[in-house]
Design goal:
- This protein is an alpha+beta fold.
- It is 26% helix and 11% strand.
- The protein has six helices and eight strands, in the order αβββααββαββαβα.
- Strand 6 and strand 7 form a beta hairpin.
- 34% of the residues are buried.
Length: 228
Amino acid sequence: IDGRDCGARDDQTILDVARENGIDIPTLCHLSGLEPIGACRLCIVEIEGMRRPLPACCTKAAEGMKVTTQTEKLQEYRRTTLEMILSEGNHICAVCVSNGHCELQELARQLGVDHIRLPMLNPNREVDASHPRFGIDRNRCILCARCVRVCGDIEGAHTWDLMGRGIDSAVVTDLNQPWGEAESCTSCGKCVHVCPTGALYERGKSTAEMLKRRQFLPYLTSMREMSE
């Protein structure tokens, strides 16, 4: 990877190996402890012999593979992808509960995305504050599906799912019922704390007050695997 010899197990992805060796590859949808799905496409890398970049989170490492993670072309792809994510939502950092603690905001800073070259779509998305403890502001949702995966794979409640296609896609609870009426929800808060933006939040939090706590995920994942 990037000219360095790296060892890998058969079950490891390129992203796993890169992180073991201190090589940074940007991600948004990926989170250790959740099954990778390659939704955000920010972790794309170039592999010698392949005609197109591939997502590092879903591509298994193989003997003799030569991977490049940082080129100007890859960085431009990542900046463009990030601009598309930002243009499709309403990300107003100054009034967001996760301002200063947001993975999307931090990645934009790292990639140098200080303006957007695409037209802003300004979608009219609803805020659901029907749950007594939590809320969802779909204006800030980037469809990473972390909430869907942690609710299904870790909590086992399967409250969250994706509905619609393309620009009309949205995360919904219990077949598009208000969150407060979702009978399957256990109110555990796991979905809130794996969300990379301010889309899912604890009610009562003001601007920049929402701190996400994800330390539980690797532990619960390992316990779940042991029980199986």
